[in-house]
Amino acid sequence: MTGAGAAPASVTATVVFTDIVASTEMLARLGGDATRAVRMVHDDLIADAVAAHNGRVVKSLGDGQMLAFDAARDAIAAAIEVQQGITDHSAREPEKALEVRIGMSAGDVVWREDQGDYFGTAVVEAARLCAAAQGGEILATELVTLLGRDAGTPTQLVGDLELKGLSSPVRTHRVQWAPRSGGAVPLPPALISALASTTFVGRDDVRAR
Fold this sequence. Notes:
The chain has 7 helices and 8 strands.
């Protein structure tokens, strides 16, 4: 623990952000009590995934959470477990279905004990990738995929994304996952449309796909 007056601790971590898609519309459709129950499903799934994969919840963000992991492979595994759990929930209770988007980045971050929070470029990248993702999607920086490659999880190159607040494009990959019942996760129409208009830098082959 950092003592009084000591410099904030710098550590290397994989930072993950989650966000419930269209939460305002869900509130209008389900009402307050049911929406809170759905949010609890999201939070419980994250708590289970974090516990199973050696992570920690940094803070709640209302419609999402910020997480941190020492190992990129654990972060990837936890993110996939959350998406699979969301899919299971939505299949069981289609009237209370939800979609979650996830972004992750890795690098040196600073832990501020007085604020209970991490700060650094990896935090900004993860948050911006979460905002750029579609429901059911996991976006990760290339460093995350390199650090976690021994897990054998397939990824797909998206390209170099221009993200708000960052001076340079971020090489981004989509983490591929499948429901526990097997089979590929279909791309939602919104994602197909978004990919067609995504800004890429130096990746004409990706833009053309």
